[in-house]
Amino acid sequence: MRIFLPDGKVLEVENIKGKRILDLLPQSREYLVAKVDGKPVDLTYILEGNEEKVEVFDFKSDLGRETYWHTSAHILAQAVKELFPDVKITIGPAIENGFYYDFDLGGKTFTPEDLKKIEERMREIIKRDLPLKREILKKDEAIKLFKNIGEDYKIEILEEIPDEYVSVYRQGDFVDLCRGPHLPSTGYVRAIKILSSSSSYWRGDETREVLQRVYGISFPDKSQLKEYMKKLEEAKARDHRKLGRELDLFSINEDVGPGLILWHPKGATIRMIIEDFWRKEHIKRGYQPVYTPHVGRTKLWEISGHLEYYKENMYPSMKLENVEYYIKPMNCPFHILIYKSRGRSYRDLPIRYAEMGTVYRYERSGVLHGLLRVRGFTQDDAHIFCTPEQVEDEIVKVLDFTLFILKSFGFKDFNIYVSTRPEDSVGSPEMWELATKSLIKAVEKLNLKYSIDEGGGAFYGPKIDVKIKDALGREWQCSTIQFDFNLPERFDITYRDKDG
Ligand SMILES: [Zn+2]
Ligand SMILES: [Zn+2]
Fold first, then answer.
1. First CA to last CA distance, the chain
2. What is the mean pLDDT of residues 172-195?
3. How far is the CA of 50 from the centre of ligand 1 (A)?
4. How far is the CA of 232 from the centre of ligand 1 (A)?
5. What domains are there in the chain, each with its CATH number?
């Protein structure tokens, strides 16, 4: 059997039956986790002998980092349980940068001194170099185990797992319900730090228990941690929420509501200049301006399908003289109705409508973030109506236009994703194929690098996502070029072609 190491080396190994992957590797704590025939496993996984391929991962890989941070989360939970035995643990995943763990403190919060103590205890647990041991239990045995130690949240999770068997991980006296994989021992974590704590809700549900979320980060090298902390400081200094306050650009007022932005004169002036630029460039490229209402009758959102598929993101309805209205979460239906307001011929196409359309979407309060995640925002939105023959050309133009706009604001580093058909979708396979192909062709025509997000499209069509990077290298979703097979059908819009 062959073992693929992260540096590209390949090991030929024999007589592997009953051996741990770890025992077949050169001695190095750079190796963190493995995949056996594609399935992620611990390095302590015992081989059965019939495996075909083992891949080993280090901190440079996504799986390596995720595992590293997930084990770090377990170390955090163990530290908290040792210091505060009455605290109940909930869940603690790895995230994009680091990890967190949510704890139930019975309504109390961690003080800065508590966090310092927890961090010290984490270092101690790392020093103990406790092995992480995976155990497979019958579900009812696991429920009994967690009942005995009073971990109610684990029982709630277990009761929702349909499987007959579950896995738990132990390190010292600490035990957690967990799928894994994990590092072989706590000593693999070298540099660890608690970053912050904040309150959260069990399952993100505001009607459930209030929890304390503790965020942390860890690295195999002290210098990496130092560098990360420096970046974080820079990010704090450049945080747009801080700048917005200091420069008197915008504010958010609790009496107005979370996620609803008040633009102050200076911020509004910047916005006006941006909008003027946006308008001028759109007109130049053959877009026509439109304005549409902020509310629409229930009927409209029934036809569009928003009430069926998007209702949880919409503000509740309002009723007046027995007519029910919803505030708009999207501009699309309105643009379609402008198109539909008269007969259209192929000679009219493409038609490109553009609007600075203010929409309202109900986002959970936990995800709101300054100007970046809000409940009311103005989309620089456009809808293009065209024939199948025009599709490719139009996409090239839109993509080129998108990059022009982004570059005008100094963004040079893009990641482009083409998302393809998800399992649940509308529209014929031929339409999906044509649309997806033309998206890819457009990206290639402009000599852009891209990744395919398999099955990541919306149910109504494939799309191109353009993600930008900020000064600190963090990725943000910015522009989307989206096909829509759904609305034209639902609103029954047509055009007269050459043959009438
Ligand atoms: Zn876990
Ligand atoms: Zn739209």
1. 66
2. 97
3. 28
4. 26
5. 2-22+31-57 (no CATH), 62-238 (3.30.980.10), 239-342+350-374 (3.30.930.10), 386-500 (3.30.930.10)
